[in-house]
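Below is a filled-in request sheet from our internal design queue. Each sheet records the structural input a requester submitted and the sequence that came back. We keep these sheets so that new team members can see what a complete request looks like end to end.

REQUESTER: design group, bay 2
PRIORITY: normal
MODE: inverse folding
CHAIN LENGTH: 251
BACKBONE (tokenized):
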């Protein structure tokens, strides 16, 4: 049983973002890719996944006018539980005025009889920008929604006002209810630096699109029979964001 704790602060100095504070307790680890106009951070676990009983707590602060991408090297695997224990993860993001945060991990993959509870809380100052990707697959290739419990809550605040609340609960090892669907995904865009540039992307597997905060934000929801198709949709967002970063759109 592990108690994971991590802290990450990104700030801007002399026109470039830099990681001003980082702390990760084993088995959590940060990897960094240096970019001139955006800090790229990879979340890595030495064990390759999350075990029942693990409690992961991560705090991320993105400073004023800085730009940061947070992603993972591979899917987050949640292993089988026993004795009704579960794995839990809480991630807190704070994004200051003028900053751009892009959260784009690989999907959560819950193994048979696993139990996982996650809460992601994002607090935005006025003028902050967010691209937030969150997704889950049906499990390993030979599994089909046979986790014991998956609970995922997303809470987004703008200047202390709750503007988006998403909650997904899958329970009961009943794959028949899911039909042919193998993956669910949510993409949330907020802020005048990202919404106008990304909202016109065409997606194959979108099931709904809704607005937030008087049209200052958009929520896309995806469901697909093929993980690769949804991955392509989400990959198009990453590609366009990378192009905009390289072209200094967010500077």
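RETURNED SEQUENCE:
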């Amino acid at each position: 049983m592990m108690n994971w704790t991590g802290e990450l602060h990104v700030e801007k100095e002399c026109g470039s973002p830099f990681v001003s504070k980082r702390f990760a307790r084993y088995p959590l680890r940060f990897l960094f890719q240096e970019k001139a106009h955006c800090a790229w951070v990879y979340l890595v676990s030495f064990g390759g996944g999350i075990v029942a009983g693990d409690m992961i707590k991560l705090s991320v602060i993105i400073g004023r006018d800085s730009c940061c991408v947070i992603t993972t090297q591979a899917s987050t695997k949640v292993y089988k539980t026993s004795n009704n224990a579960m794995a839990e993860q809480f991630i807190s993001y704070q994004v200051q005025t003028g900053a751009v945060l892009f959260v784009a991990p690989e999907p959560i993959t819950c193994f048979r009889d696993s139990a996982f509870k996650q809460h992601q809380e994002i607090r935005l100052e006025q003028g902050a920008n967010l691209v937030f990707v969150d997704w889950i697959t049906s499990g390993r290739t030979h599994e089909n929604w046979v986790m014991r419990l998956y609970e995922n809550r997303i809470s987004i605040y703008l200047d202390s006002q709750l503007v988006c609340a998403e909650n997904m609960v899958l329970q009961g090892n009943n794959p028949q209810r899911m039909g042919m669907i193998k993956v669910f995904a949510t993409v949330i865009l907020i802020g005048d630096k990202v919404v106008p540039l990304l909202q016109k992307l065409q997606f194959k597997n979108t099931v709904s699109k809704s607005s937030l905060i008087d049209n200052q934000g958009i929520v896309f929801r995806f469901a697909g029979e093929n993980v690769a198709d949804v991955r392509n949709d989400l990959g198009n967002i990453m590609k366009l964001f990378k192009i905009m970063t390289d072209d200094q759109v967010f500077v």
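SHEET NOTES:
- The chain has a mean pLDDT of 88.
- DSSP finds two helices and 17 strands in the chain.
FILED BY: M.R.
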